[in-house]
Task: structure prediction
Amino acid sequence: MKSKIKALKLENLNILIEAVSQKYRAYGPVAKDGEHAFKVIDPESKLYLGCAATMLPAKYILQPVWQDLYSFKLGNGFQIEEPRLDEKLAVFGISPCDVNALLALDRVFGGKFADPYYWKRRENTLIVAANCTEVSKESFCTSWDTGPELYSNYDLLITELSDGYILEVGSAKGENVVAQLSLAEATQDDLNEKTARLDSARANTEKKLPVAPDNLHQFFRERFNHPAWVPNSDACFSCGNCTIVCPTCYCFDIRDEIMPSRNAGVRRSEWDSCQLLEFAEVGFRANFRRPRIDRFKHRTIHKLSWMKQQYGLTGCVGCGRCVRWCPSWPERRGRVTSLADPVEIIADLMEPLEKYKGVEIPVREAA
Amino acid sequence: MKNPYIAHPAIITNIRQETAETKTYTLEFTKQKRGLVFIPGQFNMISLLGFGEGPFSITSSPLRKEIFEHTIRLVGSLTGQINRLNVGDIVGIRGPYGSGWPVGLAKNKDLLIIAGGVGLAPLRGLIDMAIEQRNGFGEVEIMYGSRKPENLIFTSDYDNWRSAPNIRLFLTVDEVPKGIEWPYGQGVVTNLLKFSKINPANALAFICGPEIMMRFIVRSLLIREFAEKNIFVSMERRMECGMAKCGRCMIGPKYVCTDGPVFSYPEVKALPHNLLAASL
Result:
């Protein structure tokens, strides 16, 4: 099967960026403020193809933090105007976990009420993915089989070698781009090096989910009222970082903004987080998930089990961003890594109940 | 691709004051020729440009195709603005959304309808439907509780409901202010269940009200030998989209907007983070 995929040898990324930029507005992971972020790139840009390298995942290009649903005029009647979304986009250096996260978002924004804003961008986007030849210490993609290697669902796929790159073509869209580059086919040595590099990345991934993905549903059902949730959620700041950096988190708010002229405005969607106190609040300040423990459980179980029930795809791809960007330092709970780490939450839930003697599980009150 | 976020303009053709803070608005689409096709218990997103959108139950009978009604209580900023609207004003409507009451299952069955406060709103369309199609359903008992007599909604409908054959209405309030004549019950709505004459074996119970009220109603019904699968509740959650996208209304793995708002009791019992949960 692998031999059928067209594999080319690419000397440097810049000629590819140049070819793509002619037709697409290209984004890629570049250095920013000591970290990396997806920014608009040009042929001079230096891409950083690390494991889940960017703080924000590529989802923000397809489902922006803020987006206008439509603009409107105030006054008589109900006059609205939809935005045009026909820009062609390309995203370089999406890691395999993030591509798998997009497949989950495809299902969230698909279905009976398909979201045209997401889908117009999605269909106009060229995915130039990059395999991970190294896996960061926070990542556990091998447990989900969402990395470090990507097998499908890309237009172009880059794998870094010691002397250049292998460029694989996964779609007609990708083929159109490489057609103008006249690249040589990759040699067997190149392909062997690719396999060796990815095998080594796989072998070096130390972090593992302690429960098999298929058993997680049952695991959380049995432990919904486990006392380990209490100290964990007590140490959580409810800041929402884990959801903002998560490549499959999709919740949003819709709000209206009025222009200074006061005769027009826009209706916008804006990323939101189930970790924030007001997320489930309704009239009279009734709140269906006021206790922090409810919010903490909701995020954890939704990612690891409920999303699979809802969409058939897991809501965690093991990118490790929540582990890395959770500000609740490990010492706060006598942990090795941060509080948002799904692997450690699961490990805590596997502890015998005696360890939590004296921990009181709060009783639910009316909203 | 059709844009499901786009609301359609509808004109307010009538406003009826229900209580000091609740009004019923009659609406008609201005452009769409086809009226609103819906199942009782479903909801619309009502939109006021510049103020936002919110989910509101459709309170009219589904058999009245050309117009539809919403009964809205003044609670926050959006409902505060809706409360200021007049006949002839335009709002945006998208919908209907959600599951609605299982009217198919209810055919030829007796109906026990129990509501608290504005919880009667999503049940009114069902009551009207059962009256208009009197031969399609068995006996109907409506048990409705409110804080005070002045908080009861749809009071102008009660004579019509009572005069229909085999329909009984029972009322109760928590508190009767001095000087108010009140010939009906006093106390919580569960107290009314003792007046029920219908046979639980051939009946469905439809409940809407605060979660804590529904919790105790369900307990009482189970004691009266209602089967769990014959009990249905309408749940409330915050919603932004109504289309299982914004994620706000989730109870565990269920979206209240598309999987609900009407759930059977066995469904809701299995969910976390609500007062009807079995794990409570």
